[in-house]
């Protein structure tokens, strides 16, 4: 049990460290907070909110993994290396893929509600 709490402490340290030092993680958190604000403003359904949260966390997870892989790659070598380039590009590709999914989902959920809001305003 004690080991479990110690692992959680390490995980929390990682979450906080990346949040304090990595610009991309900070941007992710900022966008996530704004998106949730918009979701409440547009009064999305519970299911829609769950979908939005899932995408938000998926991007967060991929951003954290991407950051971790980048750090490990930099530890392997700071010299120009073709394999390191591929490793970093593929890791970045994962976040990019998740972002495309989130943007498409956001458009599908938000655009009709935004149009509805403006149409109903006198
Ligand atoms: N050692 C290297 N050898 C070859 N190419 C590299 C190397 N390091 C980085 N690159 C290339 O530069 C790109 C950017 O890498 P970098 O480590 O600067 O990450 P980044 O995209 O700036 O991410 P962040 O903004 O999170 O730091 C990589 O995707 C890769 O194409």
Q: Given the C-alpha coordinates, what overall shape results?
A: globular
Low-pLDDT runs of 5+ residues are: none
- β-strand number: 0
Write down the secondary-structure element order.
HHHH
Q: Strand count, sense and closure of the main sheet?
A: none
What is the second-level CATH architecture? Orthogonal Bundle
First-last Cα distance? 60 Å
Class, according to the CATH hierarchy? Mainly Alpha
The hetero molecules present are: adenosine-5'-triphosphate
| Total count of domains | 1
**Percent of residues in β-strands:** under 5%
Main location: membrane
Subcellular location: Cell membrane
InterPro entries: DAGK, DAGK_sf, UDPK
GO molecular function, one term: kinase activity
Give descriptors for this structure.
single chain; 122 residues; mainly alpha; Helix Hairpins; 89% helix; globular; binds adenosine-5'-triphosphate; kinase activity; ATP-binding; UDPK; transmembrane; DAGK
């Amino acid at each position: 049990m004690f080991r479990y709490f110690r692992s959680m402490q390490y995980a929390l340290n990682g979450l906080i460290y990346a949040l304090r030092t990595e610009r991309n993680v900070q941007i992710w958190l900022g966008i996530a907070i704004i998106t949730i604000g918009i979701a409440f403003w547009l009064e999305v359904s519970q299911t829609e909110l769950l979908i939005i949260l899932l995408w938000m966390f998926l991007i967060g997870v991929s951003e954290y993994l991407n950051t971790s892989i980048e750090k490990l790659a930099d530890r392997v070598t700071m010299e120009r290396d073709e394999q390191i380039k591929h490793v970093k590009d593929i890791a970045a590709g994962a976040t990019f893929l998740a972002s495309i999914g989130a943007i498409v989902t956001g458009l599908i959920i938000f655009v009709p509600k935004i149009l509805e809001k403006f149409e109903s305003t006198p």
